[in-house]
Specification:
about 625 residues; alpha+beta; four-stranded antiparallel β-sheet; 30 strands
Length: about 625
């Protein structure tokens, strides 16, 4: 920019010099003209020289013709007249009275133009810089040298930072150690015996110890063979399971609570598969303990129960609520229905009243029907009454149904010992009685049937009180929910098929006989349960201490698996886990045993078809036997 300004300044000075020189020449020309005018006879050669000089200064060609004082011009001039005489003006010294001067001065004034001075505006616009690259100026010396610290320098910096951090950490640890030593030097106040005893006996301390010790025992009781060699293939235990051998998983017993008591019922939790609930009768040797108790066992906590609940009467039946995982429901010998909550204390949170509005005799069976948003608890008793309850209101039953059978030879009331609802059914149910007969009943009156026991049919086949009744679960590609099993103290297990006709065609058809009778037991059969996963598998427990597993697709004469449980004491109850692999068994000596039946719980696709053929054969055999009996 400075160079450009210097060039513009030089041009301004040069222009000013040209203007000054032009003014000097004009003045000199006027002086010469004034000197020639008085003589009146100036030569034309001198005039032509002056015109040529003026034309050279203003940049025009010199012209040969000249203009005289009186305005005449040469014949050869074609242009430049005005220009050649433009610098001529009347002399200020000429006399006003001279006539030739006035005559010759007027044309000279017309030929000389006026010059004006205009100030030029110069814009200072720098020229566009043109950059040209070549191989010599592509790079600058040192442009490829490393910028910033080198790799070695960075490594050294990192080492120094790590060293500083480690030093700081050691200083912090040393400060903490010193602070701990100073705190330990301070005197720790000694607790008196009264204060120590108050802390140990406080409810908060006991609850903390109980909760913490349960967590530790769960972790310590986890059984895992960390020495197992996976390169050897199947071991002997796996071969036994594949060979339909059952295996004892664990057993539960507590000397404080379950000693000298008998297990009256067992059940699995539908929400937590590791939890098992069991109910017990009274301990005759401990009069200060509750008559009935309920224990919740955890497979991962072997030595003691997870929860213990109390009852003022023997608990005869118990189960987890299907729709409330923390609720436990029990039926007692006094006829009360009790509700315990795992988040509360050991006493029941709700219970029914001992009045005529509910049960007044032992409650041996309870069941839940309905859905999550509309469900009821159904209970039956030996007083011949069925009650429907809502769990949040046990003050009085929602409905009460008397179970009367007018054709009974002794009394109209039916003493119910077992209860069963087919899957998906909320109205019709079946009950087993003390005299060994099964009856079908309805909760509500419908077209062609009344509420109460259906007197049109009676299922007769047992010769002693019925101890268990279980309907086939509804699952798989075929529906076998019309089949149910019963067991009795007559040492038999019987397979039944429910009738669908409203009324019998003849009086003889009013009695329904079993499809098949399993008669291999050595003592009372106390419970029978279908497998929840395999269509043809069911289990039984009996008074001789045997646990037997049957598979109708393999054999209908003898069980496929049988074992003596524990010390061979009488087995009272059986319950399958949700996966059908484990069976919980309650014993009369207060023990609860858990058995694994292995791959027997896993069905094959053809098992439903095989069972269908087996049942059809049983039906055909029953019909053939009825025809022979008529003859």
């Amino acid at each position: 920019m400075e160079k450009r300004r210097e060039e513009l300044e030089k041009k301004r000075q040069k222009l000013a010099e040209l203007r000054r020189a032009r003014e000097d020449r004009r003045l000199a020309l006027l002086t010469n003209q004034q000197q020639e005018l008085p003589g009146g006879n100036g030569t034309s050669t001198g005039r032509r020289e002056i015109d040529d000089l003026v034309n050279a200064l203003v940049g025009e060609r010199p012209s040969t013709p000249t203009t005289t004082i009186d305005g005449s011009s040469d014949a050869g001039s074609d242009k430049g007249i005005g220009t050649s005489s433009a610098i001529m003006s009347p002399s200020p010294y000429s006399s006003s009275g001279s006539q030739p001067l006035q005559h010759s001065a007027l044309p000279m004034a017309r030929l000389i133009p006026e010059f004006t001075s205009v100030e030029a505006v110069i814009f200072d616009i720098p020229p566009k810089e043109r950059v040209v690259y070549n191989k010599e100026v592509q790079t600058v010396e040192g442009s490829f040298e490393p910028q910033g610290p080198s790799e070695e320098e960075i490594r050294e910096q990192l080492k120094e930072e790590f060293a500083r951090e480690e030093q700081l950490r050691l200083e912090i640890l040393e400060a903490e150690r010193q602070a701990a030593e100073e705190a330990s030097r301070q005197e720790v106040p000694e607790l008196t015996d009264e204060e120590r005893k108050a802390i140990v006996q406080s409810a908060e301390f006991a609850e903390f110890i109980d909760h913490s010790s349960k967590i530790l025992e769960r972790a310590m009781s986890e059984r895992y063979d960390f020495m197992k060699d996976y390169t050897l293939g199947l071991d002997a235990e796996a071969e036994d399971l594949n060979g339909n051998r059952m295996r004892l998983v664990c057993s539960f017993h507590d000397d404080r609570w379950t000693k000298n008591r008998s297990v009256t019922d067992v059940g699995w939790s539908s929400k937590h598969p590791e939890l098992i609930v069991s109910s017990y009768n009274k301990n005759p040797l401990a009069v200060n303990e509750p008559d009935g108790i309920v224990c919740v066992w955890n497979i991962h906590l072997m030595d003691r129960p997870e929860f213990v609940f109390h009852s003022q009467s023997d608990v005869l039946t118990v189960r987890f609520s299907d729709f409330h995982p923390n609720f436990i429901i029990g039926g007692t010998y006094s006829g009360q229905i009790l509700l315990w909550d795992t988040s509360a204390k050991s006493l029941p949170v709700l219970k029914t009243h001992l009045s005529a509005g509910g049960h007044t005799h032992p409650v041996y069976a309870i069941d839940m029907v309905g859905t999550q948003n509309a469900h009821n608890l159904i209970s039956v008793s030996t007083d011949g009454t069925m009650c429907s309850w809502q769990l949040d209101m046990l003050a009085q039953p929602q409905e009460t149904l008397p179970l009367d059978y007018p054709a009974h030879p002794i009394t109209d009331e039916v003493a119910v010992t077992a209860l069963g609802f087919p899957d998906g059914e909320t109205n019709a149910f079946w009950v087993g009685t003390e005299e060994g007969t099964v009856y079908q009943a309805n909760r509500y009156a419908r077209a062609g049937s009344q509420a109460g026991i259906n007197t049109a049919y009676s299922y007769k086949g047992h010769f002693g009180p019925i101890t268990g009744l279980d309907f086939h679960p509804l699952f798989g590609p075929m529906d076998f929910s019309d089949l149910y099993l019963t067991c009795s103290v007559d040492w038999t297990v019987k397979l039944w098929r429910k009738r669908t006709h409203a009324k019998p065609t003849t009086p003889d058809n009013a009695v329904v006989h079993p499809l098949y009778s399993f008669e291999t037991a050595d003592d009372y059969v106390y419970d029978v349960k279908w497998s929840p996963t395999h269509p043809a598998v069911f289990g039984t427990v009996e008074g001789s201490g045997k646990f037997e597993v049957w598979n109708l697709n393999m054999d209908t004469e003898v069980p496929v698996m049988s074992t003596i449980v524990g010390a061979g004491k009488a087995l009272n109850k059986l319950s399958w886990s949700k996966d059908g692999r484990h069976a919980a068994i309650g014993s009369s000596d207060g023990h609860v045993y858990v058995y694994d039946i292995g791959d027997m719980a896993t069905p094959h696709p053809e098992d439903w078809n095989i069972l269908q053929r087996t049942v059809n054969e049983m039906i055909s055999t029953q019909a053939h036997g009825s025809i022979l009996n008529e003859f």
